[in-house]
Amino acid sequence: MSDNTNPEVNGADMNGAESLVRTLIAGGVDVCFTNPGTSEMHFVAALDKVPGMRCVLGLFEGVVTGAADGYYRMLGKPASTLLHLAPGLANGLANLHNAKKADSGVVNIVGEHATYHIQYDAPLTADIEGTAAPMSHWVKTSPTSQTIAADGALAIEAATQTPGQIATLILPADTAWGPADAVVEATAPPALPKASDAAVKAAAEMLRTSETATLLMGGGALRHRSLELAGKIAAKTGCGILTEGANARLERGAGRVQVERIPYVVELALDVMKKAGNLVLVASREPVAFFAYPDKPSLLVDPDSTSTQLVKTEEDIEAALEALAVELDCLDLEPAGVAQPYRPPLPTGEITKEAIAAVLGAMLPEGAIVVDESVTTGREFFPVTAGAPPHDWINNRGGSIGYGLPVAVGAAIACPDRKVIALEGDGSCMYTVQSLWTMARENLDVTVMVFANGTYNILRGELTNVGVQNPGPRAVDMLSIDRPNLDWVALSKGMGVDAVRVTDAEELVNAFDAGLHSDGPYLIEVAM
Amino acid sequence: MSDNTNPEVNGADMNGAESLVRTLIAGGVDVCFTNPGTSEMHFVAALDKVPGMRCVLGLFEGVVTGAADGYYRMLGKPASTLLHLAPGLANGLANLHNAKKADSGVVNIVGEHATYHIQYDAPLTADIEGTAAPMSHWVKTSPTSQTIAADGALAIEAATQTPGQIATLILPADTAWGPADAVVEATAPPALPKASDAAVKAAAEMLRTSETATLLMGGGALRHRSLELAGKIAAKTGCGILTEGANARLERGAGRVQVERIPYVVELALDVMKKAGNLVLVASREPVAFFAYPDKPSLLVDPDSTSTQLVKTEEDIEAALEALAVELDCLDLEPAGVAQPYRPPLPTGEITKEAIAAVLGAMLPEGAIVVDESVTTGREFFPVTAGAPPHDWINNRGGSIGYGLPVAVGAAIACPDRKVIALEGDGSCMYTVQSLWTMARENLDVTVMVFANGTYNILRGELTNVGVQNPGPRAVDMLSIDRPNLDWVALSKGMGVDAVRVTDAEELVNAFDAGLHSDGPYLIEVAM
Predict the structure, then answer these.
(1) Of A264, B376, B463, B484, which cross-links B457 as Cys (Cβ 3.0–4.6 Å)?
(2) Does residue A177 belong to the interface with chain B, where contact is any CB pair within 8 Å?
């Protein structure tokens, strides 16, 4: 960090909140997803004094934190959030959990009572640091208005590490309103360390000598160039290319090297892993089951296989893959597994999972950002969309449902020239349904499909998976959300987003076409 | 606690989840507000094996925890919640915060991965105990299926203390599915300790000798009999009767002793407290400001006054007031300050805050439960409703908005024969808007009024209060929620709750009448 002594911004008139806003902007954090309260009013007021911060209001904090996650996934740089004391932070925690598991960097600014007020245990007093800790890598309460800029720079530095981190800076009200005179520039993150030569040689050796071997690609490795390098290595060695079932962002589509995902269902995953053979871990770790089930393993590696780590998440992934390709003398080979352009025929008739997949495959526009929270409906969307024009596919890394719409908000703010397509289960969509209002307010270019099957369908399968063979009516009732049915068109229009309900494939095609040709948000209720 | 050795329920066929459900029911915890996931499937399955547990599904965890709060406020006994790992708990934390500040007892059951699965850091793995701690009094992870019943009994014992406590029991999946053979009966809470004679005598002495004195009544003292005793003491000594601005539940209306509330605005509060003189604290503490503001005090007591504690929240409040009345020889006096029956005339014309207050005062039915989250709109509702038939008035003790609709759900489950009236600001109503669906599903007798002023209006005042005199357009934009306007009728109908929008007082009267005559939920969007 370094103090900025520019006299134009460092005057007696500046308060702590303004020094923080200027520090954030100086550190490249120029978007703030907000849901403020009284303790944040000086921060809000500072926004009119300081140009350059885009503020996006959410009507619930889960929208705010999830949007910051989506923003990072697309741009690889953190946004800030503005949250109101411990309960406001608490409402944002689930999507911070998801962001943390996706290695997204976020700078949370959480207002706190004035330092001298905390002892009185006013209604909103609670342990903010304790609330932040489970979902944050870095937590600090800034003690004075003179320290807030430096602490803001530290928060930026934490969030901009590789992988990204959740940094939570707590801003007492008197820290915000007291005098400040500094703007502090965050130090840029250091260059990424390289994977060791030994790791590269070990990976090469495994690929050369294994009967069957697979590159297991983690989040940071799922970019076009890294996948291309993986394809060259596959062309040379015949290895497979795999990734986990859910990823922060996968670059895919026609012309890109395809990567198979490990299935969610344990039996299917074990089968895939048995065929995978020995594993070269590329910014990944040995895969684990989403949940434990009686008499099923937690670790999904085949007992006869071994693993070697080529490169860690905090290292330079692309350089490691290049080094491996050099070591294997395949840098100039054509990559194997490149997806050929392919558009499936448009479906007709009943709306099935296959029909929805075909609509996506046939119509996905180039550059689309698909935010996938389709849960059970979407498990077969991948193969038929592999040949669509290049696009990004985003999944939930943390497993807490309600991530999809907020991440779509953040992705749309990050990439205003790209079409965002949010695929939602009806159950998951309700958790952070307030996101629709922010989409309307900011006229975000998001088309939402809600798969309205009227159930927490995944849980019906999970009842069986955990050993409940014949669930009774009360258990089934707890998994059913069709009494009453949700009217997604009404909900969406109630928040200002135009919407339509479709009941056959032709209507779905027409509605998706309307969404793709809209400049703003559009919701399609897909009756299942 | 004591083991139940009834052979009918203690068989080899019982698993940990079933032993927990049976333990909860045996301990009087026979309502469960749920939002389950995979790790809770055995608990869900057990509901079909064990009769007697009413399960109420919410589509978001804040609905679930707030409903448990409302249930306790009405019945003084805990409900349970069923939540899905750390993120599910996190989504419920804000309303657990509100419940904690309201001294409500709640038994949270939080599913966790199987104990042996946690080490693999699966997507949903996070620190549940750490997440629970800031908003819980009692937290425990039960290690085995044989211990879960005993731990469940401990959780019930914690929640049923006076005042109520938030107990969070973490249930690993293998603890749920492993074998169990016990149901454990929770020990009933001990009799409440009495206030000391010295405390009673000191209070009497203060009331006899002070020029001006006031009984400051805390949450547990706001029941009919305690207020009647306070009225007798006032009749004898001329003291005032005050309470905090927000209370867990206040019994009021015609025939009950009136109690003035300390205003939210600091200047007004200081004025009231100056007039209050010396304070007798009745299950209360010296009042504090909701927020700190530059150059305003945090503690709202008059510097010339002194305080004495008659009775603490954990003691027998009614007995202490009786002892004080005996000491002052006024037990047989008619209480002062009894509200006389009064119905204001029905308003006509424009919808103003006064018109809404008049509608409430004129039409509140006997036994109504008013859940007040009207924020700025409702500050003047109190005087004109004081003479309505006896009813209960519920406020947010914790200050985290989004408490109102969930608490209304819980109150309606607790008191199916009473009309619940939820008064909501449009900003606050959005946080846990999913509550409407649960109202429809359970056909709860709740009439919701949403005051649609299109703004976080309270924050406009707070900008000024914290010293921001001329907020700029970007600050004002962060407090405005009218771009786009929320269509509450659409939102409500989208979740299965019939609704109407009213734009003048006559329409409001007709709509409120329709709500009062409905057996199920009904929403009125009040255009402001």
Answers:
(1) B376
(2) yes
Read off the pLDDT of each residue in A485-509 and give the average, rounded to a whole number. 98
Answer for the pair B180, B146: CB distance below 8 angstroms, yes or no: yes
Indicate whether B373 and B501 sit together in one domain.
Answer: yes
Q: What is the pLDDT of residues B439-476, one digit of tens each?
A: 999 999 999 999 998 888 888 888 888 888 788 888 88
Closest chain B residue to A40, measured at CA: B463
Mean pLDDT over B147-156 rounds to 98
* Residue A75 CA, distance from chain mean position: 11
B343 lies in some domain: no
C-alpha B455/C-alpha B204 separation (Å) is 48
Interface test with A, best of B33, B59, B166, B435 (most A CBs within 10 A): B59
Is the minimum CB–CB distance between A433 and chain B shorter than 8 Å? yes
Peptide bond into A484 cis (omega under 30): yes
User: What residues of chain A, 3 to 42, have a C-beta less than 8 Å from chain B?
Assistant: 34, 36-39, 41-42
In a domain, A140, yes or no: yes
Structure tokens at B140: 């425990």
**pLDDT per residue as tens digits for the range B237-284:** 999 999 999 999 999 999 999 999 999 999 999 999 999 999 999 999
CATH number for position A358: 3.40.50.970
Q: How many CA atoms lie within 13 A of A183 on its CB side?
A: 20
**In which domain, by residue range, is B291 found?**
197-327
Same domain, A45 and A69: yes
Given pLDDT bands bounded at 50, 70 and 90, which one contains residue B292?
Answer: very high
Residue B152 shares a structural domain with residue B26: yes
Using a CB–CB cutoff of 8 Å, tell me whether A325 touches chain B.
no
> How far does chain A reach from its first CA to its final CA, in angstroms?
54
Measured between beta carbons, the chain B residues lying within 8 angstroms of A45 are 463, 468, 471-472, 475
B132-152: average pLDDT = 97
Is residue A364 domain-shared with residue A472, that is, in the same domain? yes
Question: What is d(CA B264, CA A298) in angstroms, rounded to the nearest whole number?
Answer: 54
User: How does the average pLDDT of chain B come out, rounded?
Assistant: 95
